[in-house]
Amino acid sequence: MTAHPRDARALDFEVQSDTAAQAYQVSSPWGDTILDRRRLMQTLSLGVYNLQGDHKPGSADFSVVLRMRLDADFGINAHLGAADRGGETAYQIEAGPGVRFVPGLQQAPVDLMYAYVEGRNLLKGWLGFRAGRQYVVDSLGWWSFDGALARVTTPYFVRAELYGGLEQRGGLPLSTSRFERQGVWRGNHAGFGTAGDQPSVTDLPSYQFTQPAPAFGVALESNGPSWIHGRLSYRRVYNTGTSVTQQFPDPTGGYRTAEGLRVSQDRLGYALDLNKSDLGAIKGGFTYDFYNQIVGSYYGGVEAYLGKRATIGADIDYFVPTFDADSIFNWFTKSPITTATARVWVAPTRRLDLSAYGGVRLWMADGDPETFGAEQCRASGLCSGDQEIDPANTKAFTRDPDNRAISTTVDALANVSGRYRFGTAEVGLRGMVQAGARGHTGGADLSGEKRFDGGRYRVGGRVSLYDWSDPLRPDRGATSFGYVLGAGVRPVQQADFRVEWEHDMNRLVGQRFRIVALLNLRLGG
Fold first, then answer.
1. What top-level branch of life does the organism fall under (predicted)?
2. Helices (H) and strands (E) in the chain — how many of each?
3. Which pLDDT score is estimated for 75?
4. Is 365 helix (H, G, I), strand (E, B) or coil?
5. Is the pTM of this model over 0.85?
6. CB 110 within 8 A of CB 170
7. What residue ranges of the chain have pLDDT lower than 50?
């Protein structure tokens, strides 16, 4: 009998845990209510690589990775007492049903950030895949779905992707709403019903049902010289289930709804980056929203590398807010915001670097915000005290193109920063301002850090002074002073611990304190 030894399997693994704990209070800007915050964020990640055995460059390899997050706030309900106790998360309380209830609010939500199995370099490098919960990051933004992605890499400098599954949405198990299109408030309706001690759908018609959202996308991406990268992306997501389409009941007491398969988002995007390390870089991109039939955003930038110690550049960014196709905000005017800036970075010495940028931000609107409302009121007859009020006059005024000429408000932007590094320490200074006809915000902060014993121990701090004002709400202007003190230790190579104390003060919130503790653990093998 002969025994044959099994092939050695060169599995690599990595485990990482990050913990952040905060404790602070927030004063309500509209009263004396104090909101207690006792927040704990915990992430845990695991990666297992080279499942196929010994890694061979260019050969197929397989891996499994996952990451989970607990984002708890144990201060929820903490400011409520007596008859309101527990009212933010419980519908039926002593004070009465629904007095403080916030549907969908969880004290300790857990979400699965990603969890997928991946294969690369299959079929002699032509094919790769991912299956599970995963991210897609491109010109259309950060997006997450549960499903599968196939990637075909050709020897002709082109790579293609095809993916599909279900969009990650809040209210579904182990999910978050971070990656949905904005404009719709969705969540789990468990516990809703018609009993007196249960919340009703018609009591909260804006709180929409969460249902699975089928989605698919395709992308073409360059895969050639390292100095050029372009990616063309298309994505479509569908809404399913029932959506309540009116805030108040009709004369019969009912609510209109939309049902069936319908578009949530339908968008195209492209991004291009050219970067030559000895010359400079050019970048640009755009997105197009097929549902709204508008260019949702575009950007462009150019920079020149003036040797190894200086860079100059200029950027432009255009953005129009767009929303989920079920959102009521699609019925309202959407106006663009355009930002144009120029920037410079210089490093006179290896220890000192300086940077600055400045420019303008243009806020556009249909009609003149200063006069439109008053003129609309006069057209209706309300402002003149007419007994006969004709709504048609208001409609005609509002839709008249002469009354909706584009108006533009301009803000000036500026930012400067500098950093000086010592052997075991560094200090930094940063200042910013944004100012225009609608108010201003500006200020500066000074920070520093000192390391001991080869970086095993560190202490640091920051002092800041900021001021802001808003002519529309003059009572909300204030000057704020704050400071942060922190210390950290790395007892072993695989662990870091840091604690920070923050104290901010201004006439709006009085004295506000916060303590933050951070613990990072890493293990690999």
1. Bacteria
2. 2, 28
3. 85
4. strand
5. yes
6. no
7. 1-8
